[in-house]
Design goal:
Layout lengths: L5 E7 L32 E5 L14 E3 L19 E5 L3 E5 L2 E6 L5 E5 L30 E8 L5 E4 L6 H8 L17 E7 L2 E7 L26 E7 L8 H15 L1 H5 L2 E6 L6 H11 L5 E3 L8 H14 L20 E5 L2 E5 L1 H9 L5 H14 L1 H8 L6 E4 L2 E4 L4 H6 L1
Parallel strand pairs: 1-3, 2-4, 9-11, 9-12, 12-13, 13-14, 16-17
Antiparallel strand pairs: 1-8, 2-7, 5-6, 5-8, 10-11, 15-16, 17-18
The structure holds guanosine-5'-triphosphate (GTP) and magnesium ion (MG).
The site of magnesium ion has 5 residues, from helix 1.
Length: 424
């Protein structure tokens, strides 16, 4: 399994089905009534946290996700079937961004976000029947599909994060206290991607995240950088493992301070996460003396003594972890960024090189569902625009009869109603 924690996806909801235009035909009935059924709704696209997943690898090569179309309506008032929704499974802990704004944090299995709404089905001509118009020759097209792009970013969901310089013994500790079997070796940067393990201590269960080693300057890209710190950003507490013999010729106390600076440079919030400090490799010769010196030069935290190799100190450390978890707040979630509330007018009128354009979501939608090859549909379209005040707005802006007016993808010739013509 390849661990990927960033991806981009492209989603497309289903177009709504078109409404039907049809009239009842029966033997001995000459003028049957309208019986065109409405189209079905197009499928929605959802993004959902799926506990079976732990990487965004699936999205490396499959960037487009399309929900099914709604079926067209048919005669005899048969409504088209709705298009099936498409549910895209992502690992719990996936954050969704749209236009660089965070829109959701899918932490818990089953958390879902509506990524693209399916188009509404168009109305069939049966629904347009009124006392005045008993034989409507018009129907609507289904609403178009919705397209969107999302950036996905995974921040693993874990209770405890392991922190330390390369080679400190993080992965060894994880394999000592959980079933996880990460790669362990006597060289720095053995771990290249995070590992999760589930620990059970006195009836309590919690998830531990082991991440690659950090070094001085990680926040500016040294070593493997500090990208992986995002996988401990949610954790409730951190265990800071320090090789009792130091790393890179520096003392363990210096190592500890250096990493805490890196942590703060990455995120102020992470620097606030409670830490339990443990000196590792306490089974090796000279470790007792080294630990005494370490404790002497670093008095801010209690320093636990740990050997993942012999198991000594593991229990005491895990008890402290359970205690700390009891006090710590829950796994952090990230709220959506505030959205700018744009109160969009129903339409706007603007002058173009060759005439006028009516813009706005509502107007574009109306144009999209209108059959411009049906005379009655065109009249309805015009009546609705007049009702919204589009005609008045065009006149006010200076439009004259005969000018070209574009609405959505359609170009029309402006023919204002009599009340406007008589004014001139
Ligand atoms: N003697 C002894 N050796 C240990 C102990 N814990 C880890 N080691 C050794 O230290 C080396 C590094 O251990 P890892 O668990 O791979 O260290 P890490 O912190 O995960 O390292 P990176 O993944 O490179 O950041 C390995 O050779 C381990 O066998 C310990 O408690 N005692
Ligand atoms: Mg490791």
């Amino acid at each position: 399994m390849i661990f990927i924690d960033r991806a981009k996806i492209h989603v497309l909801s289903g177009k709504g089905g078109d409404g039907a235009l049809s009239f009842r035909r029966e033997k001995h009935v000459e003028m049957g009534g309208p019986d065109g059924g409405s189209g079905g709704k197009g499928g929605d696209v959802w993004i959902e946290a799926d506990p079976q997943k732990n990487t965004l690898y699936d999205f490396t090569y499959r960037p487009l996700f399309k929900a099914a179309l709604g079926e067209n309506g048919r005669s005899k008032r048969q409504t088209g079937a709705c298009g099936d929704d498409l549910v895209i499974g992502v690992p719990p802990g996936t954050l969704l961004f749209r236009n660089r704004k965070r829109v959701a944090d899918l932490i818990n299995p089953g958390d879902r976000y509506l990524a693209a709404r399916g188009g509404r089905g168009g109305r069939g001509n049966a629904t347009f029947k009124t006392a005045v118009n008993t034989a409507p020759h018009l129907s609507e097209k289904g609403e178009p599909s919705e397209e969107a792009f999302y950036d996905l970013e995974l921040k693993l969901v874990a209770d405890v994060g392991l922190l330390g310089f390369p080679n400190a013994g993080k992965s060894t500790f994880l394999s000592a206290v959980t079933q996880a079997r990460p790669k362990i070796a006597d060289y720095p940067f053995t771990t290249l991607t995070p590992n999760l393990g589930v620990a059970r201590v006195r009836g309590k269960t919690f998830v531990i995240a082991d991440i690659p080693g950090l070094i001085e300057g990680a926040h500016s890209g040294k070593g493997l950088g500090d990208e992986f710190l995002r996988h401990v950003e949610r954790t409730r507490i951190l265990i800071h493992l320090v090789d009792v013999f130091g790393y890179d010729g520096k003392s363990p106390a210096e190592n500890l301070r250096t990493l805490n600076k890196e942590l703060a440079a990455h995120s102020a919030r992470l620097a606030q996460t409670p830490q339990i400090v443990a000196a590792t490799k306490m089974d090796l010769t000279g470790s007792d003396k080294a630990l005494a010196a370490f404790r002497k030069s670093f008095r801010k935290n209690k320093i636990f003594s740990l050997s993942s190799a012999t198991g000594s100190g593991v229990r005491e450390l895990m008890d402290a972890v359970v205690k700390a978890l009891d006090k710590a707040p829950g796994v952090a979630s990230f709220a959506p960024d505030p959205v700018d509330i744009v109160i969009e007018p129903d339409f706007q009128v603007e002058q173009t090189n060759d005439g006028w354009r009516v813009t706005g979501k509502k107007a574009a939608r109306l144009a999209a569902i209108t059959h411009f090859d049906q005379d009655e549909a065109v009249s309805r379209f015009q009546n609705i625009l007049v009702k919204w005040g589009v005609e008045d707005a065009l006149i006010k802006a200076g439009a004259r009869a005969g000018d070209t007016v574009t609405v959505g993808d359609h170009r029309l010739t402006f023919r204002p109603a009599l009340k406007h013509r008589s004014k001139r």
